[in-house]
Amino acid sequence: MRVHLCVVGRLRFGPERDLIDDYLKRFDRTGRALGLGPVTLLEVEDRKGGGMAAEAALLRKAIPSGARLCVLDERGKLMSSPDFARQLGEIRDAGTGDLAFVIGGADGIDPSLRAEADMALSFGQMVWPHMLVRVMLSEQLYRAASILAGSPYHRI
Ligand SMILES: C[S@@+](CC[C@H](N)C(=O)[O-])C[C@H]1O[C@@H](n2cnc3c(N)ncnc32)[C@H](O)[C@@H]1O
């Protein structure tokens, strides 16, 4: 199952970028034997200041057609890491070809795009900067693959 992180804004370098690259590389490595990955980071940028609606249009173009869609949203579902891993495994086992995660920009995700999502995942009720949410999601994907692989990365 191919996994896509569809995000607003470009991050060319810096500590967040290094962490994202590292976790996504680890996810690919661990997920390969599990039918998870490859993962791609698809960054979109609206330079015309068109707001959430313009960002949503760019995100829709980036999301592969037919992909299952999960938006990151503080109002979404709270999950433990093992639950997230289980859900990822179930989506894979259902024969899903593409799973796309969407992280909004500073204004959030356009309500129309949010309404199209199959699920909404929350990292808590607090609002986090979108660049940090990228790091957190990348790490949770790697953690989920580790849990499904039975590797000792995840410890409670
Ligand atoms: C700075 S936040 C935007 C906040 C915006 N005011 C809103 O209402 O959505 C940027 C993006 O980060 C993600 N995000 C921020 N906090 C989150 C959380 N607690 N759980 C999941 N995603 C979160 C969402 O995708 C959000 O669109």
Automatic annotation (TrEMBL):
Binding positions for S-adenosyl-L-methionine per the UniProt entry: 72, 104, 123-128
Reaction(s) catalysed (UniProt annotation): pseudouridine(1915) in 23S rRNA + S-adenosyl-L-methionine = N(3)-methylpseudouridine(1915) in 23S rRNA + S-adenosyl-L-homocysteine + H(+)
Principal EC category: transferase
Residues annotated as transmembrane: none
Matches recorded under InterPro entries: Alpha/beta_knot_MTases, RlmH-like, tRNA_m1G_MTases_N
Enzyme Commission code(s) on record: 2.1.1.177
UniProt keyword annotation of S-adenosyl-L-methionine present: yes
Major localization listed first in the record, in broad terms: cytoplasm
Localization per record: Cytoplasm
Record's keyword terms, sorted: Cytoplasm, Methyltransferase, rRNA processing, S-adenosyl-L-methionine, Transferase
A Pfam family assignment: SPOUT_MTase
Role noted for this protein: Specifically methylates the pseudouridine at position 1915 (m3Psi1915) in 23S rRNA.
Subunit text: Homodimer.
Recorded family membership: Belongs to the RNA methyltransferase RlmH family.
The name this protein goes by in its record: Ribosomal RNA large subunit methyltransferase H
Organism the protein comes from: Salipiger mangrovisoli
Recorded name of the encoding gene: rlmH
